[in-house]
Amino acid sequence: MPTDPTDPNAPGGHRPAAPTDRVRVRRKPDRGHYDRATIDAILDAGLVAHVGYVVDGQPYVVPTLYWRGGDRVLWHGSSASRMIRAVEAGAPVCLTVSQIDSIILARSGFNHSADYRSVVVVGVATPVVGEDKARALDAFVDSLVPGRAADLRPMTEKELKQTAVVSLALDEASAKVRDAGLGDDPGDETWPVWAGTIPVRRTFGTPEPASDLPPGIELPDGVRRLIER
Amino acid sequence: MPTDPTDPNAPGGHRPAAPTDRVRVRRKPDRGHYDRATIDAILDAGLVAHVGYVVDGQPYVVPTLYWRGGDRVLWHGSSASRMIRAVEAGAPVCLTVSQIDSIILARSGFNHSADYRSVVVVGVATPVVGEDKARALDAFVDSLVPGRAADLRPMTEKELKQTAVVSLALDEASAKVRDAGLGDDPGDETWPVWAGTIPVRRTFGTPEPASDLPPGIELPDGVRRLIER
User: Fold this and answer.
1) How far is CA A33 from CA A67, B3, B4, in A?
2) Per the CB < 8 Å rule, is B58 touching A118?
């Protein structure tokens, strides 16, 4: 029985290999991870993805909110958007999620760095249509605030028509993680300059209720949990 | 004499038009900005860019630290990296910087949204070489902590050789900004669900000095300014 594939340091354990050469981490291969636990944790902690697609040989990179549904990552957009139309037409895409965790200020410029977590997913996305689309959009809202979709004013046919949802399988994905902190060259530690790390975080502030919120509507627990996440 | 191009609301003023169709904001054109003041402010507030490039028709999107130098945006990488090699070979690139400012929780799923600021730059990047490269790498460090480069252990020839720097002109760039906050449909405001906005911020935490920092080296003012930015 194999050991936990999520623990590359488990005795006798081994890290899963890259599913394809396209997503194999080439530079600093020790930072590459291909197990779904690592990939899912980074995707689930993120908020914004950057989606790359190509038109006439020119790449475009578009920031978008996204969510994960099981073995797929999903995003939405206007049915009329150039990105959505290209993706729905079967253009190869790359979806990247990244989170910077710290800035590393070393004694040399060369050893300046950052700790970070990122995921890259490549492939061809699939349009999500019909009742699946309505369900996916509910799941999108619930991915931010669990349970919220059921409390909303129901979607109209027109709204549904204006909105497109696409999904991309996590079959061809990799994570890249640096969590090494400061790494100066031996001998540099006596150089007379401040060195260390600066944590970087994405934080949620205090929710600001709508100015026309009817009295008696309290902040839902789900929103409280989001801002603590 | 034209009015300030950075102020779209100036009496008699007009917003600059998109430099090319490739970066024109098509969806929600009112969110598009093409003046350098808006573009530079977003670039200067950001930390991580997502760079898109194409290999064999497949787009790849790579997160990277970046900095702005006058009319260009720059980034660095290992001379051996696939991204750097493709970019140095003249592959078209797209560099995108985005910052999410708030999550909008509306009464309908359709009006859920986010306030954000983003910049897209497309074009062909140029390798920065020779003494310009060394100067650019110093500028990179100084873009994080002004004045720091001069205090560092000097770069070695080997380090310089291992590091590549590329720059991309801001000639073909656009910004997209949503700062509209909550926008429910008329009539939805009485729907019995909490609605409002949740601010999202990137914050710097307390600097953690190197464990082997010699005594007497204080936190530099530049680092203090970085974490307050």
Assistant:
1) 20, 53, 50
2) no
Judge whether B180 is closer than 8 Å to chain A, CB to CB: no
Task: Assess A210–B contact: CB distance below 8 Å, yes or no.
Answer: yes
Chain B residues near residue A135 by CB distance under 8 angstroms? none
B198 and A208 within 8 Å at the Cβ level: the answer is yes
Contacts of A6 (CB under 8 A, 6+ apart): A35, A37, A38
Question: Do A78 and A164 meet the contact criterion of CB atoms below 8 Å apart?
Answer: yes
List, for residues B33-77, the tens digit of each pLDDT value: 999 999 999 999 999 999 999 999 999 999 999 999 999 999 999
Which residues of chain B neighbour A118 with C-beta distances below 8 Å?
63
- Name the burial class of residue A150, with classes exposed (0-12), middle (13-18) and buried (19+) by CB atoms within 10 angstroms of its CB: exposed
B195 with A210: CB under 8 angstroms?
yes
Cβ of A191 within 8 Å of Cβ of B152? The answer is yes
Query: Domains of chain A by range and CATH?
Result: 29-182+190-200 (2.30.110.10)
- State how far the Cα of A144 lies from the Cα of B88, in Å rounded to an integer: 40
Is the full-model pTM beyond 0.95? no
